Amino acid sequence: MSTAIATTAGDLRRLAGRALRHEARTPDALMVNIALPVIIMLLFVYVFGGAITTGSSGLAYVDFVVPAVLLMAGGYGAALTAVSISREMTGGMIDRFRTLPISGWVVPAGFVVASVVRSVVATAIALAVAIALGFRPSASLAEGALVLALVFGYVLAVSAVAALWGLFVRSTQAAEAFSFMVIFFPYVSDGVVPAETMPGPLRGFAEHQPTTPIVEALRALLLDQPMGNAGWLSAIWLTAAVLISVPVAAVLFRRRTAR
Could you tell me the superkingdom of the organism this chain comes from (predicted)? Predict the structure, then answer.
């Protein structure tokens, strides 16, 4: 059993490394992954920041919006997993993998691992830019560890759902639509503007969609504020996304690669 686990772990490491090398060979896509959240942050802070109030929170806008931008940074890179998997499924590379003595689920899992590594780096760069713009987190060491865990969990959940989407759709163009959905959700949450300022139906959606508690939990941890229900709601959403997406993606992969 230990030999089988070690072999599978080695296969997963090699496939994740392969995916990361592919990213390194397409610097334009890599730069977009890193630059897009930074551009969004600059736009919000310097263009819209003076016109947007943060409602009852009383926070400076840069402090208010940074958690949402961090999710955009990690989520956009994670969402690209759908495109990578769709490209492999339609480009014939999966047929070559099927001739190798590896577990089928390791192939999409390799893309998920690579996505987590890439997206966590992009999030760290976005945080560094935010600090340069005046963001001053006051998190303790324990709260900082929870921030890392929450960002990691979010990236993992989005990557898992992206893998499922990439296996479900039949073209890379359809797979690319997932990136738009991931970028869209933070806008209609409590991340960019306070949900309390939105009209009725939109406010109801913003308050009950999964991105809002994650943003609020990040904001509370980074700024050492009360978290309320945001922490356990975030854990429920992220855990459910992974536990549902992973087995369904495994079934889809087996069906699409069956002869």
Answer: Bacteria
Which amino acid belongs to residue 31?
Answer: M
Asked if residues 48 and 187 have their Cβ atoms less than 8 Å apart, the reply is no
Cα angle value 144/145/146 (rounded, 5°): 90
Cα 25 to Cα 153: distance, rounded to the nearest angstrom = 27
Parse the chain into domains and list their residue ranges.
2-257
pTM for the predicted model, two decimal places: 0.86
Distance CA 163, CA 221 (A): 29
Say how far apart CA 16 and CA 118 lie, in whole Å: 11
Listing DSSP states for 62-102 in one string gives HHHHHHHHHHHHHHHHHHHHHHHHHHHHHHTHHHHHTTSSS
The predicted-structure confidence for 109-156, as pLDDT tens digits, reads as follows 787 888 888 888 888 888 888 888 888 888 888 998 999 999 999 999
